[in-house]
Amino acid sequence: MKDFFTVTSLERVFDLLPQFPLVETEPLPIEAAQGRILAGEIRAEEDIPGFARSTMDGYAVRAASTFGASEANPAYLTLSGMVAMGESPRTPPLPLGHAMRISTGGMLPPGADSVVMLEYAAEIDATTLEIAKSVAPGTHVILKGEDVEKGRTVLLPGIKLRPQEIGLLAGLGIREVSVYRQPVVAILSTGDEIVPINAVPGPAEVRDMNSYSIGSQILEAGAVPLKMGIVRDNFEALRQTCQTALERSDMVILSGGSSVGMRDLTIEVLESLADSQILVHGIPISPGKPTILAKAGEKPIWGLPGHVTSAMVVFHRVVRPFIARISGMAPAAIFMERRICAKISRNIASAQGRTDFVRVRLKDEGDALWAEPILGKSGLIHTMVQADGLVEIDMNTEGLNKGAEVSVILL
Amino acid sequence: MKDFFTVTSLERVFDLLPQFPLVETEPLPIEAAQGRILAGEIRAEEDIPGFARSTMDGYAVRAASTFGASEANPAYLTLSGMVAMGESPRTPPLPLGHAMRISTGGMLPPGADSVVMLEYAAEIDATTLEIAKSVAPGTHVILKGEDVEKGRTVLLPGIKLRPQEIGLLAGLGIREVSVYRQPVVAILSTGDEIVPINAVPGPAEVRDMNSYSIGSQILEAGAVPLKMGIVRDNFEALRQTCQTALERSDMVILSGGSSVGMRDLTIEVLESLADSQILVHGIPISPGKPTILAKAGEKPIWGLPGHVTSAMVVFHRVVRPFIARISGMAPAAIFMERRICAKISRNIASAQGRTDFVRVRLKDEGDALWAEPILGKSGLIHTMVQADGLVEIDMNTEGLNKGAEVSVILL
């Protein structure tokens, strides 16, 4: 029996990220690429917009024609027609002292450099426009290329494509992009006491929650869960299933085995796999200390605790960045998880030398958002169901006093 | 021409939410229900766990057998076998002074009420156990029903199913749940200057970004986008497409028509639809003031501004709660959007009587997270691509001073 437990700090665990290669890329139509990680850089092959556009309803002018105009002392311009939407005004350059009616989004006629809003103009007769305000060149105009300039790099690889990036690609006429494919993450539950969810558990048995809660977390992380089912506490069975899982996936997660015997069995199995190496055996976090990370070939294999809540917390804080890594996400983006500020609603004790994750419920009370710790053992799923998030108490903090500002990781 | 513009405050707009009925429900296997809205309440038909379980590796005892035990003065118990995982110990009640070896997750033998951790016990010989610590009843034990009690309501309708709820359902042996179906939201772009993204725009034309950026936002909101394409600025064409869209969807979004003429056309078309009513014509927000909300039959129809950024902001802050509403989300959950705390990096002016949404980039600088305003006209997609979020400056605030605490809505 190996009793030693040389823990690896969370920072050191994340130092291992570059050891794992990225999945391949695939082309996707932009409407299917929402939420996917961009694989190549995108350059603008054209300007957006391709022409100077009005941003208001009004009159296109040379700004100089309006200089000095005011309500008390309006300028009078010659109205020489209107710009139709979507059409290029085929007119000679607009002379000084002239104006053309234009709608929002219309193309500025040649010679015009600005737009006077409808509100500051009055058509006196069919050819005379009164202007009660002077405008500077560029007023109410988006210039050609002002949004996106031709030749510029507009998107970098490794970013997650949000609706605005999809919109930008559409604007550039790019209908297909190269993105990383979604990694397949295999999940298997171990334990002689675990039965499938469609079975009626015997008196000492429990249903396989982890395949579902973790499977669901895998989905949420942008990967594809591959359920390998339940494996008995048996070297050959576990080894065989791990090998099959490795062949079919990009990452393998074993859950269960919180007992020392089961942990030892897991380690033995992981060590027996071809080209394998145990990288992490224990992390100073609570819950989640007995977490194992190994590498078989170039693929990560995790041993997560069996307690459903511990497994979920470890997945959220430790496994997810590795999924993001192999998904092609840029290193800076992996840890961009934004946290909510709140105040802790009661004193919380915490051991030094260990990072604690406290499940909390958020309560809006007037001006402050309070994070209310949810008490309960880490084997209890209901504590996660009640939780809105996790408060992380770092290893150098000895606990929190009521009212202390905390940042909450949303669950 | 209708120049009047009777704006409706954001609060009053949200008062209209209950006017729109929810979509129907559908049964789904739990592994497909991630992120969906639960339609019925879930009651536990059994206890979780179904038996008292050990949460540690150690020895099951009656606590009274350990009272007074310490390192200096250990207790000696009779070791009477071990509990196998997944098996119900078919033993007579454990007598005082006896112990059974047990692993994490194992079922407590009858009579036992607590577990002594491995670390505080030593097997002296095959039948003698030395115990160096006393335990209280219940120590290292999860009681039958302690996680979920049979008969209790565990999930309420209207919640979004997260991984922990999926895990709980699995634990209860519930393989299928009733959820609301995903609403279909039709999107159509209007404007004579708009061309499909696969076309090369003429000199005064632009590509249809909004169908893609808003289509992508619809997906992100948990609904199914239905692209109706581009419609000319023509009453009959717009009316016909609106009618088709209403027949095929649960909500219709028109984007474009930022010019007064186009807005008037949109209003005329909406008024011409069967059983229609204009509910909102203008909201005091920037960007997004010209937003229109109508009702045709029981379905909402939106007229969003044509500027890509304005349309996205209005979708995010105004349209999304309506999608959540018809998706079945509980009223309390609709506005549970959590915001990130940051400090604004420069002074920002804002008009009173209007809610301003300022696009910001987040920058972590040591201890503080700064929200850096992104300047640029609301027609520019690149400002949204650079943005991490929006800062909302409410209508009673006259602007923000550098360093002021702000809450950021993530984009």
Structure description:
2 copies of one chain form a homodimer. The first copy, chain A, has helices at residues 10-15, 163-171, 210-220, 235-248, 260-272, 308-326, 331-334, 381-386; strands spanning 25-29, 42-43, 53-54, 58-61, 75-82, 98-102, 114-117, 121-125, 128-131, 141-142, 153-155, 176-180, 184-190, 194-195, 206-207, 224-231, 251-255, 276-281, 285-286, 292-296, 299-304, 340-344, 348-349, 355-365, 368-373, 389-393, 399-400, 405-410. Chain A has 411 residues and is an alpha/beta fold. Chain A has 4 domains: 10-23 and 182-334, Molybdenum Cofactor Biosythetic Enzyme, Chain A (3-Layer(aba) Sandwich), CATH 3.40.980; 37-48 and 148-180, Molybdopterin biosynthesis moea protein, domain 2 (Alpha-Beta Complex); 53-142, Molybdopterin biosynthesis moeA protein, domain 3, CATH 2.170.190; 340-410, MoeA, C-terminal, domain IV (Beta-clip, Beta Barrel), CATH 2.40.340.10. Chain A has a 6-stranded mixed sheet, with no helix packed on it. In chain A, helix 3 packs parallel to helix 6 and helix 4 (235-248) crosses helix 5. Chain A is elongated, with a radius of gyration of 31 Å. The two termini of chain A are 37 Å apart. At the A-B interface, helix 2, strand 15, helix 3, helix 5 and helix 8 of A face helix 2, strand 15, helix 3, helix 5 and helix 8 of B.
